[in-house]
Amino acid sequence: MDVDIPSSPGKFKSEKPHHHYLRLLLRWHYSSLHKFLCWTIVAAIVLFVLFLASPNLSSSSPASLHSSSITERRSLRTSSSSPAWGDPAWEKRVRDSARIRRRPFGISVLVTGAAGFIGSHATNALKRRGDGVVGLDNFNDYYDPSLKRARQALLSHSGVFVVEGDINDGPLLRKLFDLVAFTHVLHLAAQAGVRYAMKNPGSYIHSNVAGLVSVLEAARSANPQPAIVWASSSSVYGLNTEVPFSESHRTDSPASLYAATKKAGEEIAHVYNHIYGLSITSLRFFTVYGPWGRPDMACFFFTRDILAGKTISIFQGPDDATVARDFTYIDDIVQGSLASLDTAQKSTGSGGTKQGPAQLRVFNLGNTSPVSVVELVSILERHLKVKAKRKFVKMPRNGDVLFTHANVSLAKKELGYHPNTNLQTGLKRFVKWYLEYYAPPSGSYLTKKGRGGGSSSS
Predict the structure, then answer these.
(1) Confidence tier at 398 by pLDDT (50, 70, 90)
(2) What is the DSSP letter of 245?
(3) CB under 8 Å to 53, separation ≥6 — which residues?
(4) Is the pLDDT at 151 greater than 50, yes or no?
(5) What angle do CA 40, 46, 49 make, to 5 degrees?
(6) NAD-dependent epimerase/dehydratase domain spans which residues (predicted)?
(7) Pick the catalytic residue: 196, 237, 258, 276?
(8) What residues are paired with 391 via a beta bridge?
(9) Pick the residue with more confidence: 56 or 243?
(10) What is the mean pLDDT of residues 411-430?
(11) Selection from 116, 119, 186, 113 nearest residue 340 by Cα
């Protein structure tokens, strides 16, 4: 942009020719100098950003160390040897896995987060009843990936191909939709956990917000558009004090970043439904547990620490108030998720353009019977036949809430959802799986080498 030389106030006077040329020369000089300085500053900023982002910086460089710590906080490591996708053999595996065997009512489903806890159970249930299923998972190291690999092996044995890739990989998603006319997407991939957000907030935005948008973008551009069922969370109720939690309650006071990203997801879902005609169902899960569960969940790390003889910390609220959760067994969650898929109406968009109103739903999926964490520990003691070493501590300000309780009347009415597994029965099944999976032949119940059990957020 040209820079004018300020003129003196007062009456205008015509200038002599040589003054006029001198004025033009000065304007050109200052304009060029200004542009040079601006572009020099811009170039310096770009080079500085590239310098910080460079993975080849010397490890002894302070800037390198700072950049490395930022990157570590924003991302989780995934498999460094991810197999290439897109060759004929890979395409054949995708198509074979997506083949529907249940006629005439079978569906074809892309399940994201398929190697995760809920994802692996839901994927297996869909395959068992004859639906076509393709999984997608990036196998990150939020917790030990070997547990995810073990779930993947079970799914592979059932005939399910789990594609190794990220939900933020747009070309991969488009390729999958080009290969298979998915009727549904069960979107379960997410960065889970409330407390981990204090260590790695960027991962929640990357997975739960950007990742959801990536999936919805691929779905709205697909032809035909699939119906979407995705995992929100009971955490969206946040600081709400009305119980039991109902879908009609306000959810504008999240207590954690995790909750905020899930609430944002529900608003994003509304936008894609409104603009593009995507049929979308949001499921608010309440504290899911069971075999093959996540190591950062209470029943998992309590079991691990009780067997290891470690003292477990039990949170208490103000005035020693009891912390309680609406613990929901995995089979009940899967039943509600599949019912959501089966009752989802078709999307109404075509070529990314909405043709008419589309279905938009939100359901609570819980057990409706909150149990205190103290009672949870007591039940585990009975099943493990080991006395826990307890320590009561005040609940930290980390985003956890004191109490959750699901009202599932809407899910019962619309989905036929009926949770029927109490905590006593569910924990018995969980403990049985845990001992079979983690107990080595010697009889020691300590974690097997290479089989996980640790948690980055416990």
Answers:
(1) low
(2) B
(3) 67
(4) yes
(5) 140
(6) 109-345
(7) 258
(8) 313
(9) 243
(10) 98
(11) 186
Domain ranges of the chain: 98-286+331-366+407-419
Bridge partners (DSSP) of residue 87 are none
Query: Is there a contact between 98 and 116 (Cβ–Cβ < 8 Å)?
Result: no
Q: Which residues contact 180 (CB under 8 A, 6 or more apart)?
A: 94, 95, 98, 108, 110, 132, 134
Q: Which two tokens stand for residue 171?
A: 């070309």
DSSP 3-state assignment of 291?
A: coil
Q: In whole angstroms, what is the distance from residue 257 CA to residue 260 CA?
A: 5
User: What number is the average pLDDT over the span 61-75?
Assistant: 39
Question: How far, rounded to the nearest angstrom, does the alpha carbon of residue 232 sit from its chain's CA centroid?
Answer: 9
The distance of Cα 227 from the centroid of its chain, to the nearest Å, equals: 19
Q: Determine if residue 454 is left, alpha or beta; phi over 0 gives left, psi from -120 to 50 gives alpha, anything else beta.
A: beta
Judge contact between 324 and 374, C-beta under 8 A.
no
- CA 213 remoteness from chain centre: 12
- Band of residue 102 on the pLDDT scale cut at 50, 70, 90: very high
Say whether 258 is catalytic: yes
Q: Quick one: which H or E segment has residue 185?
A: strand 184-187
The confidence band for 11, taking pLDDT boundaries of 50, 70 and 90, is very low
Looking at domain 98-286+331-366+407-419, what is its CATH homologous superfamily?
A: NAD(P)-binding Rossmann-like Domain (3.40.50.720)
- Dist CA 450 CA 458 (whole Å): 18
Three-state SS sequence of 386-438: CCCEEEEEECCCCCCCCECCECCHHHHHHHCCCCCCCHHHHHHHHHHHHHHHH
- Angle (nearest 5°) at CA 347 between 229 and 191: 25
Question: Tokens 């298979």 label which residue?
Answer: 180
Closest CA to 234 of 301, 344, 325: 325
